[in-house]
Predict the 3D structure of the following.
Amino acid sequence: MLRGKNAVITGSTSGIGLAIADALAAAGVNIMTNGLGSEADNRDAIDQIARHGTDVLFSPANMLQPKQIADMMETAERELGSVDLLVNNAGIQHVSPIEEFPIEKWDAIIAINLTAAFHTIRLAVPGMKRRKWGRIINTASAHSLVASPFKSAYVSTKHGLAGLTKTVALETAEFGITCNCVSPGYVWTPLVENQLADTAKARGISQDEVKTNVMLASQPTREFVTVEQVAELMTFLCSEGAASITGTNFSIDGGWTAQ
């Protein structure tokens, strides 16, 4: 059912985003991938996705820049022929007490994690409405449902993304479009790995203690969620079997938010 569909996936040259791109390409989807990594990392990601035999484009669009986001979406529509699937996955994090939180970090997190999704969605929806079909998935977080200390900007954006998801779902429900968000717990990705030092400093503990006593303490399974598990859930949400699922926030967090 997905073969020949076209997807834009932001933040998709590593971690969760790359796993999503890989899974959708395996299902026959052409991919516009995106990221700000090194040229070598970007090439490795493109090669990994392209091994499935679908078309793969790359955009270096910076999610801080609305003009670059618009250029990426227009290129995907022009070169692939349509944007049928949109996965807003790009995200950044910073860990700090709120009274010490750098203003520039707050502004960047809001822009990349939340405002960029607004821009991609507003640009993708007109074409989806014309075609009477579309799938929009936002990568949220367990922090779209619960909070943790020292993550004021991140938690705010993920709560906002959950609200944006519901609103878009209601606006597009009669056009064959679904909009959902997926909220992983701790997934071992570069984003999570990069939190270790800041979290250790903020809490006054070691990085190993952050892993066991902060991150995995939240998840009753005591295991990190895998990128492949997140990608499989998102692939299902793109399928015809999920056509009546919209406006929903899917937790995939090892039981974190069940507590």
